[in-house]
Every structure is written in C-alpha cells, then in structure tokens.
Amino acid sequence: MSDRRNLFNKVWDLHAVRTLPNQQTQLFIGLHLIHEVTSPQAFEILRERGLKVAYPDQTVATVDHIVPTADQSRPFQDGLAEQMMSAIEQNCDEFGVRLLDLKDGRQGIVHVVGPEQGLTQPGMTIVCGDSHTSTHGAFGSIAIGIGTSNVAQVLATQTMFLNRPKVRRITVNGELAPGVYAKDVILHIIQQLGVQGGVGYAYEYAGSTFDAMTMEERMTVCNMSIEGGARCGYINPDEKTVEYLRGKPFSPKGGEFEKAADWWLSLASGDEAEFDDEVTFNASDIEPTVTWGITPAQSVGVSQPLPKLADSPAGERVLLGEALDFMGLAEGEPIRGTKIDVAFIGSCTNGRISDLREAARVAEGHKVADGVKAIVVPGSQLVRQQAMEEGLDKIFEAAGFEWRGAGCSMCLAMNPDKLQGREVCASSSNRNFKGRQGSPTGRTLLMSPAMVAAAAIEGQVVDIREFAGAAV
C-alpha cells in the first residue's frame, strides 16, 4: 500500500521520540543553528544547571545580527554588540560548539551559511532561535524558529516539545513572466492568504513554478513562510536539491552521498499524499510586487493602485487606515513613483549570490539617484568573496552603492545600519513592521533585489519591466 503521508509527516514521524499526554511530540532535532542574540541566556541556563551541550557536533554557531557591516574591526564601537560577540566566543569555546566567526572565512547570516556549507539537508529537523529558520525548508526539511528557552532545551537534550501542525499544499503552476521573481511569488501568496492565514499549518510549496526555481529562489520563498503565519514551509527535494548539495563541505562523501541522495528523493510527497488543505495560484497572475503598508500582506502589484478603504472588507479597514496614515500614502494612489531615501539589498531572504548578480545587472551603467543612500550587504563571507571574484562589487561601487561586509544589516537594525526619522527604504528583506529598520517612524517597502536596484537609481519605486537597460 502506498504511503499517503506528505513529506512533513514522514520527517516528523522519523524524528518523534514520544507523544506526551497533552499530545505534543518530543521531537529529536537533527541540526541546531545558533547565533549571538538568542544564545547567551540559553548557555547561562546550562551553566546554572550544570548541564553540557548534548550533541555539540550537531550544533553550529555563527554571528550575524549585531555584526556591523561597514567597519568589522574589533572591538566593535557598540559596547553591547562587542559584549554579545565576546559571549558567543566564550560560550562556544567552553561548550565545544563550532563557531563560524569573523576570522573563520565562512561567517554570515545563519540561514545563508547553513545551506552553503551543506549543513542543511533533506529529511532533517532543524531549529534556530530566529524567525526565518523556515528558509531551510527549501531542502525538504522541517525547519522551525524557536525562542531562547527552547534554545536551552535543545542544547541540553537535542529535543524539544512541539504541537504537530496541519499541512497545507500551496500549488503555483506556470512560467513566471520576465521581471517577476521568487520574492514576488511569496509576497503574492502572503497577500492572498494573509499574515494569519498559515497559523496552525506547515506550508508545502508545489507545482511547476517551484519546480523551475533554483535552490536559492526556493530559499527566498520558504524564508518568508513565517510572514504568512505558517509554522514552517518546505519544498520537496529533487535533482536540483541533490546537485546543490553535492560537494558541499558537510554533505556526505563518495558512495555515502549517493545513498543519501536516494533517501532524500524518497521523502518527497507522493501522488497520493494527503493534505489538510490545498490552495492553487497561477504564475501568470503574479507581477512585480511591492509592500506599501506595515505587514508583508499589505502589498500590490507595481502596476496596481493602493486599496481604497470603501472597497476593503469592514474588518480590515482600521488596519488599512493605520497603515496608510503611518506610511504617508493615500488610498487609491499608485505605488509606482513613491519616493525613497534608502535602498537595501541583502538579508537572509535576498542576500545570496544570485540576488547580487540580478541587482548588479540592473545597476550596471547607471548611477544611484541624488539623495539616496544605497547599500549592498552579502549574506556571507563566501557570497562576498564570490561576488568580488565576479566583479559585482566594482559594478555596485561604480553605480554609487556602498559595498559592505556580511551580516543581517538593515533587515532588523540590531547594528549600526538603521533608518533615520521618516526615511523610506526600498528593501529586499522580509519585514516591514513599524520600527523594524531601526527608526520608530521609518518606512519600509519590500520588493525583489532587482526592484530595489532600480528604485535606488530612479529615486522612486519603478516597474522593473520598464526600467531602462534592465532587459528583463
């Protein structure tokens, strides 16, 4: 009899240690990724209780959130950042955890480093004290963001207690039009289903649109699953997954890799797999998308006007009005032409080499508009090195962009990269909440890296499909 379980439930069952009386599952964790912000308190809990890290070989640390990207010399100018940096160095040394720090050459955003090192593999359970752990689901893993108390629990036991979510399959079929990217696909899905639409669910992304995506594009989609309220999001492993992982530092070697690859492919949800809910979209309905409000669901296609309160559901009008007021926008006006002050290309959503290549292709031969501050922040030291080998840094600098070191940067502003006052930022990151980029009154417009580059050059939101020289 065929297995009707989808990938999520297969992997969950393989890692289930036991079911508790309250129906939670004690789940074994295959990979625990940690960083400098949510780990200090967890290590202190271990010290207080005289505990060790249960499986240090399955725990990997990096530094990203507080790391400055303009001047990375030590000690950091920010005393708190230096304190947190010193803490993770001491903790990893004391507890025997591998640390990819600034001297390592592999440092970077935790959700960029995991895949590029081959730490992230299909069929794994992966946790990290960071919301966007869902990124790793692009490889067919269950990847979940956790809190600091959970970080301590996983360090001490390599397990944690979780409620099993339901699984919704989101199918997108068709070829994306020129100028439409993975970022636009996930923004469109969140726009349609809402920021609470995924509560209680894991999302399986399926269909020919995702099949055609590269692994880096799939990571962009899975990264923002949490913004739609889902516990996690994943894509079934295929030959692209296998080839991406082949030869990676932490991937299996030789014959063991081929055995692993066969098993990885066997995990995919079969034709008879069952789901708790299904939603289908057409790729042809998706255009370059820009957020205009204060949640990732408040977005429009770049050719579309902002919503009108009278045309919106009654239950949404208060939030829509609040968002329009905060953003200084008027209902019914076009998003295209909105002036920007800052352009940010980077983050765990769009700071990989393919993102930088696409942005550089748009920027080449142009100049950043007067009065716009534009920065490019590679997602890891290896991405930065590869970009420089390809000459992308020279393209950006010639166009007037600042070329930075690796880190989270202006995505969340736990570092010197912050908006000032009411500045408007065109951002390739993942959140546009009030205060997200460091200023309580700063305003964020989320879009693809290509759209950010074009906005930086024009000084306003433009349609990448009509941008001179973009050749999309």
Automatic annotation (TrEMBL):
EC number: 4.2.1.33
GO biological process: L-leucine biosynthetic process
Catalyses which reaction(s): (2R,3S)-3-isopropylmalate = (2S)-2-isopropylmalate
InterPro entries (alphabetical): 3-IsopropMal_deHydase_lsu, Acnase/IPM_dHydase_lsu_aba_1/3, Acoase/IPM_deHydtase_lsu_aba, Aconitase_4Fe-4S_BS, Aconitase_4Fe-4S_dom, IPM_dehydratase_rel_enz, IPMI_cat
Domain of life: Bacteria
Metal-binding keyword on record: yes
Domain named Aconitase/3-isopropylmalate dehydratase large subunit alpha/beta/alpha: residues: 9-459
Alphabetical list of PROSITE patterns matching this protein: ACONITASE_1, ACONITASE_2
UniProt GO MF annotations: 3-isopropylmalate dehydratase activity; 4 iron, 4 sulfur cluster binding; metal ion binding
Name of the top EC class for this enzyme: lyase
Keyword Lyase: yes
Alphabetic keyword roster: 4Fe-4S, Amino-acid biosynthesis, Branched-chain amino acid biosynthesis, Iron, Iron-sulfur, Leucine biosynthesis, Lyase, Metal-binding
Cofactor note: Binds 1 [4Fe-4S] cluster per subunit.
Cofactor: [4Fe-4S] cluster
This protein's pathway: Amino-acid biosynthesis; L-leucine biosynthesis; L-leucine from 3-methyl-2-oxobutanoate: step 2/4
Binding site for [4Fe-4S] cluster: C348, C408, C411
Any single Pfam family the record assigns to this protein: Aconitase
Function text: Catalyzes the isomerization between 2-isopropylmalate and 3-isopropylmalate, via the formation of 2-isopropylmaleate.
Subunit structure: Heterodimer of LeuC and LeuD.
Family stated for the protein in its record: Belongs to the aconitase/IPM isomerase family. LeuC type 1 subfamily.
Protein name per UniProt: 3-isopropylmalate dehydratase large subunit
Gene from which this protein is expressed: leuC
